[in-house]
Amino acid sequence: MARGHRFHLDQDGHSVTVQTGQPSGGVELLVDGKVVGYQHGRVKGVTTLSAELPEDPPRPFRILLEDMGGELFCAMESSGQRFLMPQIPLWKPEEPPPRSRAKPSRPLKRLRRLLRRL
């Protein structure tokens, strides 16, 4: 599974975001930018988070997060309906994606180094 995932959905004028892979290793649920739910630990099987949309009266909803063989599936259940939450990148679209920390492979340089040792 990748280091972190972010799922986002605009529902009835409210911004609902689910983030995984935070430094503490938990799952965070945000509504309108405020943390309303948190679960410590990695996603194993099906993880459920419950919260309420700030309306009058408050409307409860729940988030279902499931690890499906290395890929996460996220859905929001509200008022008897289920909405798929699309995954969004953890970086801004105008920025290039973060580079891998792995060093570039240089087979020719490695071969020369090995031949010098002979």
Fraction in helix = under 10%
pLDDT under 50 segments (min length 5)? none
**How many helices?**
1
Which topology does CATH recognise? Lipocalin
In this structure, how is the largest beta sheet organized?
Answer: 5 strands, antiparallel
Q: Which range does the strand content fall in?
A: over 45%
Q: Within the largest sheet, what's the order of strands?
A: 4-3-2-1-9
| Number of self-contained structural domains | 1
The count of strands amounts to 9
Radius of gyration: 20 Å
**CA-based shape:** elongated
Average the pLDDT over all residues and give the rounded result: 83
CATH class: Mainly Beta
Helix/strand structural class:
mainly beta
Element order: H for helix, E for strand = EEEEEEEEEH
CATH architecture: Beta Barrel
**N-C termini distance:** 42 Å
Region (Disordered): 1-23
Mind explaining what this structure looks like?
- This protein is mostly beta strands and 118 residues long.
- It has one domain: Lipocalin (Beta Barrel), CATH 2.40.128.
- Helices cover 9% and strands 48% of the residues.
- The protein has one helix and nine strands.
- It has one helix spanning 107-117, and strands at 5-11, 14-20, 27-31, 34-39, 46-53, 59-68, 71-78, 81-84, 87-88.
- The strands form two sheets. The chain has a five-stranded antiparallel beta sheet with strand order 4-3-2-1-9, with no helix packed on it.
- The radius of gyration is 20 Å and the shape is elongated.
- The termini are far apart.
- The model has no long low-confidence stretch (mean pLDDT 83).
- Residues 1-23 are annotated as: Disordered.
